[in-house]
Write a sequence for this structure.
């Protein structure tokens, strides 16, 4: 598409340089024969890959020239790159724009998803043209073997059953099929209900970990939830839907939900409104997840398939394909539920903090005025409630460091509140309690990303409580504040 | 009952015990409350307070006391409970504040309490929140807020031959006769706490309307009928109800109430007699012996008084009163039925149709005689 666009606006060829890391590097200059849809090779060079074997150059360079209005297209171009970086977190992307500005999207992971496996077409998804091509090139001379060799998940038993139901003899030579019989065979394949659903190992989804990484990297949210649906198929085409939801942090709050759509790791940046993804997002009752469209959250939908159900030739919008839509909907629901859980937990924390603030605000007053009434000195309210800051602006190092110790002997309930105030670096914290003169881990190692906090209620009798904190990444110090509140009765 | 000639009379001692000792009892109860909370905290226990529930389900009419009283159901407020903590602290502060008032012999109003709180970093959302806390404290201490030196804003007036002696700071021992000012004397904190020294009056006449009160003063009703006149200015404020009760209890004076001839006027009289449901937690505010002297429904007919038609709201109110336990007495029931039958109402001023002094010359003596005064 890009090559074609370059050619029709500048009439310049595309230059491709490539090597798989062997001794040769090949360089082509190509143009497209638009009428015949075939390449025209203008120039072909072979260079020696000169370096030592392990250091040989490997990769592909594609160079095209195109003409367009950058001033107009700039936002979309940058958006496209940003979104590409989102679903390719293992890629370094460098872009120097026509104005000479450098844009860099750095990789944050080294791992790539496993490459897809090559498979035969599924009988449900075959059209007449494809079937004719397979027949022309096959070396099988009977239908039973032909079906097994060229189609996905067709074994002997299924091939037999299908041919019997389709009324085609097993020993018929496929090359002897007349054109109208070929059309009929395609019909029969679609009608037959005994084919197994396609397997998904021919697909290359990102996987939950990489998707999370990409979203964290490009959107920098406070919270992200990702979900990969089980592989499914429509009309013989396998597909996998991956969905993520990002909330807060640098995700902007707009009037509407922010939606990112991807097909086979390609961002779809145009014609958003006609897309089925929007229809699905609109159909969801966000209130059920305690969300409103003007809250800062983004939905990321990645459809991965051997055949993306595009609505138009422009390959920008997804059609309402029943099976695919269902998976998208269920995927969004799953991540929305996770976000709702996160938000309600956060709200609980906020409420708890406020609750304790009420104690520290009013108990001293009750003590003071009671004492005034009784004409005596105020009673010690720390017997009822005490708050202690055990870490204050604490800068973490690579090893765990103890906080101040909170004497919890008087209290039945202890609340621990730890916050990482650092702008970037994550921390690792844990909470220990002294039982029979031995420190026990009460809250095991917990990662605290930048700006996040934990709030836990500890019930039971402990002699003392302490918190330990360290940097999660070596030499990346974080900044910790921690409070312990004790409440009697 | 008491002659002008008696320099000192028995009421002084009675008087002492009711106002002065009430204050010291309240003072002691407040101190005990503070001590209880301190001791609880010392023991590591969150302070709690128990009081009678003032929810409508716990308000009952007591034929014995002839007023609404609180039942046995109780509520516990605990400082351990987040939802209770704020009102708890507010109540402890209020207890402290009124204790200071009593100690320093100062008085305050509901609004003043509301504003004073801010100086102590105690915050009330609005005055109704602080009023409510004061009512809580009344329930706990079992004394009306007047005993804490907290008085309402509204003032009504009294006129008549009654000599009082102030107990408020700066006026201690000073005496005054309540007939010394023709507009009457405001029933405020100073009067509420004053001792009754002597009186020649043998009855109390309570009047709802200011115009009639003035007429009664002008026409020397206090002399002609040997009465102390009280102007309630509509629904009687609590300090006025307390004052009327004292006149009745301490001086043994019968009380006659004149209000408009409609359900609202009836109820002004009834609240003086039997109290309101809002004050079901208190016992010091009613005068069960007081009598509603008019304007009755039957007066509209008997005296051919100019009248207006009852509105729908009036009729609705009459139906409510009909089923109100305070109104179970035969006379009240008869008047309610008659109002409903004639569907008419009339104001105290209606007597002026027959001349400005008609009410004093004719109606008043006839009615007082009828009631056995």
């Amino acid at each position: 598409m890009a090559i074609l666009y370059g050619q029709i606006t500048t009439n310049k060829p595309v230059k491709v340089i490539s090597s798989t890391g062997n001794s040769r590097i090949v360089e082509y200059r190509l143009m497209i024969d638009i009428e015949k849809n075939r390449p025209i090779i203008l120039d072909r060079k072979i260079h020696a890959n000169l370096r030592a074997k392990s250091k040989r150059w490997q990769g592909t360079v594609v160079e095209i020239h195109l003409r367009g209005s950058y001033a107009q297209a700039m936002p979309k171009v940058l958006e496209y790159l940003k979104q590409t970086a989102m679903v390719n977190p293992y890629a370094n992307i460098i872009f120097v724009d026509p104005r000479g500005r450098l844009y860099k999207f750095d990789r944050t992971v080294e791992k790539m998803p496993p490459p897809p496996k090559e498979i035969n077409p599924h009988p449900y998804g075959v059209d007449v043209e494809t079937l004719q091509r397979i027949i022309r090139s096959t070396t099988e001379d009977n239908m039973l073997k032909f079906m097994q060799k060229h189609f996905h998940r067709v074994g002997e038993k299924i091939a037999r059953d299908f041919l019997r139901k389709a009324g085609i003899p097993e020993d018929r030579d496929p090359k002897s099929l007349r054109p109208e019989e070929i059309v009929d065979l395609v019909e029969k394949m679609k009608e037959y209900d005994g084919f197994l659903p396609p397997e998904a190992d021919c697909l290359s989804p990102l996987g939950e970990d990489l998707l999370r990484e990409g979203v964290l990297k490009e959107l920098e949210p406070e919270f992200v939830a990702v979900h990969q649906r089980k592989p499914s198929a429509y009309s013989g085409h396998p597909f996998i839907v991956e969905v993520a939801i990002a909330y807060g942090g640098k995700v902007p709050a707009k009037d509407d939900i922010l939606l990112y759509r991807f097909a086979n790791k390609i961002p779809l940046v145009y014609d958003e409104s006609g897309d089925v993804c929007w229809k699905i997002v609109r159909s969801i009752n966000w209130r059920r997840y305690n969300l409103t469209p003007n809250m800062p959250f983004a939905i990321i939908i990645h459809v991965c398939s051997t055949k993306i159900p595009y609505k138009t030739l422009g390959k920008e919008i997804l059609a309402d394909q029943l099976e695919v839509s269902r998976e998208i909907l269920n995927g969004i629901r799953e991540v929305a539920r996770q976000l709702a859980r996160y938000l309600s937990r956060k709200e609980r924390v906020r409420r708890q903090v406020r609750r304790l603030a009420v104690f520290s605000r009013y108990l001293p007053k009750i003590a003071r005025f009671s004492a005034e009434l009784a004409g005596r000195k105020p009673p010690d309210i720390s017997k009822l409630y005490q708050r202690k800051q055990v870490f204050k602006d604490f800068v973490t190092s690579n090893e765990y460091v103890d906080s101040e110790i909170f004497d919890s002997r008087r209290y039945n309930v202890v609340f621990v509140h730890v916050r990482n105030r650092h702008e970037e670096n994550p921390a690792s914290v844990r909470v220990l309690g002294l039982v029979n003169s031995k420190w026990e881990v009460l809250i095991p190692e917990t990662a605290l990303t930048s700006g996040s906090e934990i709030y836990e209620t500890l019930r039971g009798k402990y002699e003392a409580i302490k918190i330990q904190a360290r940097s999660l990444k070596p030499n990346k110090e974080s900044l910790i504040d921690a409070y312990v509140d004790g409440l009697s009765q | 009952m008491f002659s002008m000639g008696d320099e000192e009379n028995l009421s002084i001692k009675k008087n002492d015990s009711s106002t002065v000792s009430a204050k010291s009892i309240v003072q002691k109860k407040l101190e005990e409350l503070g001590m209880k909370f301190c001791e609880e905290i010392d023991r590591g226990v969150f302070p709690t307070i128990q009081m009678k529930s003032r929810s409508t389900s716990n308000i009952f009419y007591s034929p014995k006391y002839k007023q609404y009283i609180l039942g046995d159901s109780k509520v516990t407020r605990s400082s351990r409970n987040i939802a209770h903590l704020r009102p708890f602290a507010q109540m402890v502060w209020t207890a402290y504040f009124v204790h200071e008032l009593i100690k320093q012999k100062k008085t305050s109003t509901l609004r003043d309490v509301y504003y004073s709180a801010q100086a102590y970093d105690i915050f009330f959302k609005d005055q109704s929140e602080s009023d409510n806390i004061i009512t809580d404290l009344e329930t706990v201490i079992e004394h009306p807020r007047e005993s804490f030196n907290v008085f309402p804003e509204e003032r009504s007036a009294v006129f008549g031959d009654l000599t009082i002696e102030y107990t408020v700071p700066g006026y201690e021992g000073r005496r005054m006769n309540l007939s010394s000012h023709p507009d009457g004397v405001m029933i405020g904190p100073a009067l509420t706490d004053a001792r009754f020294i002597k009186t020649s009056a043998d009855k109390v006449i309570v009047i709802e309307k200011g115009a009639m009160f003035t007429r009664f003063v002008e026409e020397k009703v206090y002399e002609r009928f040997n009465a102390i006149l009280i102007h309630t200015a509509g629904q009687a404020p609590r300090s006025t109800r307390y004052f009327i009760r004292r006149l009745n209890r301490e001086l043994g004076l019968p009380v006659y109430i004149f209000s408009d001839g409609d359900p609202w006027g009836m109820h002004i009289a009834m609240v003086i007699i039997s109290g309101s449901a809002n004050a079901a937690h208190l016992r010091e505010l009613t005068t069960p012996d007081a009598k509603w002297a008019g304007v009755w429904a039957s007066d509209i007919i008997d005296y051919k008084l100019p009248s207006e038609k009852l509105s729908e709201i009036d009729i609705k109110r009459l139906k409510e009163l009909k089923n109100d336990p305070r109104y179970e007495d035969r006379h009240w029931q008869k008047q309610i039925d008659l109002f409903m039958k004639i569907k008419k109402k009339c104001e105290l001023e209606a007597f002026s149709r027959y001349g400005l002094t008609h009410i004093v010359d004719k109606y008043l003596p006839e009615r007082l005689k009828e009631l056995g005064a």
Observations:
- The domain at 157-370 of chain B is CATH 3.40.1360.10 (Dna Topoisomerase Vi A Subunit; Chain: A, domain 2).
- Residues 1-17 of chain B have pLDDT under 50 and may be disordered.
- Chain B is about 45% helix and 15% strand.
